[in-house]
């Protein structure tokens, strides 16, 4: 019987695993900078407060909050007039990961302004939960909720603004370009809707150069644009498609939002030529990225080949809804004491 000779070579020492993230403890959490306030618009926070929220979002994505449950014992009502995949899932999962609880209320159950006065809904919810996220048709509904409830009201989408989405968008953009985005060209192409308005607000806060490219008659809200100009923002509103060229970020959204189905044919004709395709993506900056808040109506504002393009960060952007909204909820609700 023969035996196999042992090798005289020494085995290399195993490579140590990379250091993990520094985990927060209850004593190292940042102070909630928006404590008890409403978040109906990105302009409900200062540039410094936005920076803190974004830093928290990045920290959460790195896994540095796994050891803490800062919203333990708190509850958030999720009120939906409009259907949602990303908004519902990310706010619900986000509350769970922070130690809290979310309850989803459909329009059939609540009937804002139809089954029950908005003010009555607000005064009921504030006695049971610690915050409300509402995804509604009208900005005025959010304002009425905020005026009648002493707990934080979060805009999950309205006809005027979509501010929580923009937090995720800018987290995605910062992952590409870093924190200082001054002078970066953010080009939004398509309907001058709630997202276009919120892009203008974020341009005010971050110093980005925001360009809205839209057909005649579909420009963003005039008062939003005028306010941005008064504040010294770098804003361009144009119908010229060549403005897309050289963009650092190219962003689009659906042409036909929920509630606009009767205008579908008119809008498709008006927006012909404004579709984001791989050919259009070839004209933006070499390191530029493509964003879309989803859902995509393929064949209209974009095509599958664009969301799957090497410059696309669409699904990173969707993931960041979770992290950015967790950061927002922490800074709004993190100073609260459970009421039970």
TrEMBL record:
One term under GO cellular component: cytoplasm
Pathway annotation: Amino-acid biosynthesis; L-arginine biosynthesis; L-arginine from L-ornithine and carbamoyl phosphate: step 1/3
Localization: Cytoplasm
InterPro entries: Asp/Orn_carbamoyltranf_P-bd, Asp/Orn_carbamoylTrfase, Asp/Orn_carbamoylTrfase_sf, Asp_carbamoyltransf_Asp/Orn-bd, Orn/put_carbamltrans, OTCase_ArgI
Top-level taxon of the source organism: Bacteria
Domain Aspartate/ornithine carbamoyltransferase carbamoyl-P binding: 37-174
Assigned keywords, A-Z: Amino-acid biosynthesis, Arginine biosynthesis, Cytoplasm, Transferase
EC number, as in UniProt: 2.1.3.3
Cell wall biogenesis/degradation in keyword set: no
Biased composition (Basic residues): 1-12
The keyword Membrane is assigned to this record: no
Assigned protein family: Belongs to the aspartate/ornithine carbamoyltransferase superfamily. OTCase family.
UniProt name for this protein: Ornithine carbamoyltransferase
Organism: Deinococcus ficus
């Amino acid at each position: 019987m023969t035996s196999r000779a042992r090798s005289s070579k020494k085995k290399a020492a195993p490579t140590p695993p990379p250091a993990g993230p520094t985990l927060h403890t209850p004593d190292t959490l940042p102070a909630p900078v928006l404590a008890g306030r409403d978040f109906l618009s990105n302009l409900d926070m200062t540039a410094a407060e936005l920076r803190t929220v974004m830093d928290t979002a990045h920290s959460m994505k790195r896994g540095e909050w796994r050891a803490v449950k800062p919203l333990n014992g708190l509850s958030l009502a999720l009120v939906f007039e409009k259907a949602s995949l990303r908004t519902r899932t990310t706010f619900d999962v986000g509350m769970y990961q922070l130690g809290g609880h979310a309850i989803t209320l459909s329009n059939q159950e609540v009937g804002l302004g139809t089954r029950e006065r908005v003010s009555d809904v607000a005064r009921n919810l504030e006695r049971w939960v610690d915050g409300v996220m509402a995804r509604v048709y009208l900005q005025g509904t959010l304002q009425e909720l905020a005026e009648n409830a002493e707990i934080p009201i979060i805009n999950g989408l309205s006809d005027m603004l979509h501010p929580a989405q923009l937090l995720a968008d800018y987290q995605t953009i910062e992952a590409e370009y870093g924190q200082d985005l001054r002078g970066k060209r953010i080009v939004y192409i398509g309907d001058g809707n709630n997202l276009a308005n919120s892009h203008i607000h974020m341009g005010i806060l971050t110093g980005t150069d925001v360009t809205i490219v839209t057909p005649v008659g579909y420009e963003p809200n005039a008062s939003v644009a005028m306010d941005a100009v008064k504040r010294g923002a770098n804003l361009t509103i144009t119908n010229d498609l060549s403005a897309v060229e050289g963009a650092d970020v190219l962003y689009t959204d659906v042409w036909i939002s929920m509630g606009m189905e009767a205008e579908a044919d008119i809008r498709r004709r008006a927006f012909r030529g404004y579709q984001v395709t791989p050919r259009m993506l070839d004209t933006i900056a070499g390191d530029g990225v493509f964003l879309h808040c989803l859902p995509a109506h393929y064949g209209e504002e974009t095509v599958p080949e664009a969301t799957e393009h090497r410059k696309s960060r669409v699904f990173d952007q969707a993931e960041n809804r979770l992290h950015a909204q967790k950061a927002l909820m922490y800074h709004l609700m993190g100073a609260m004491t459970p009421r039970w």
